[in-house]
Specification:
The protein is an alpha+beta fold. The chain is built from two helices and 13 strands; from the N terminus they run E-E-E-H-E-E-E-H-E-E-E-E-E-E-E.
């Protein structure tokens, strides 16, 4: 038996020693190893529960695409920034805050909230007031500090 890490972005199992998710390459270095994966297999009930959880995670994923074509998978409650989700893309852009914006999935809708970032979060060129949730639509362009633009897939 061995411990594993669950990626907070894609929900997949990774070995305890991984620092990047083997499936989506998200940073999982701070994820604490959890559940025990028994080599002899799991019960049918466990498999059904895991499939339900993975299906729920897939349905509640938001995919953001950079102008370069990189994809960032977002789940409810994810914080984007230099030290958050997407840090492998934003890490060296000092105009993007460490914890720039938060994404919320509520009542089957996606919202974004600026976390009082230094240079702001913009939707279709309009600055979001810090702390206010703004509903997102499939055609929205999200910009962090006017330097980095993302599109909703």
């Amino acid at each position: 038996m061995s411990f594993y890490k669950i990626c907070p972005v894609c929900g997949k199992k990774n070995t305890n020693s991984e620092i990047l998710c083997c499936y989506c390459f998200a940073d999982i270095s701070s994820v604490t190893a959890g559940g025990i994966d028994i080599v002899t297999g799991s019960s049918e009930e466990d498999s059904e529960n895991e499939n339900d959880l993975n299906e729920q995670n897939i349905n509640n994923l938001l995919t953001l695409i950079t102008t370069e074509g990189d994809k960032i998978k977002i789940r409810n409650g994810d914080v984007v920034g230099r030290e958050g989700i997407g840090n492998e893309i934003f890490r060296y852009n000092l105009k993007i805050s460490r914890h720039h914006s938060k994404f919320i999935f509520l009542d089957e809708k996606w919202f974004i909230e600026d976390l009082n970032s230094r240079n702001g979060t913009f939707i279709n060129g309009n600055k979001i007031p810090p702390g206010k949730r703004i509903e997102l639509t499939s055609n929205d362009a999200i910009s962090f500090s006017h330097t980095f633009q993302l599109f909703i897939e």
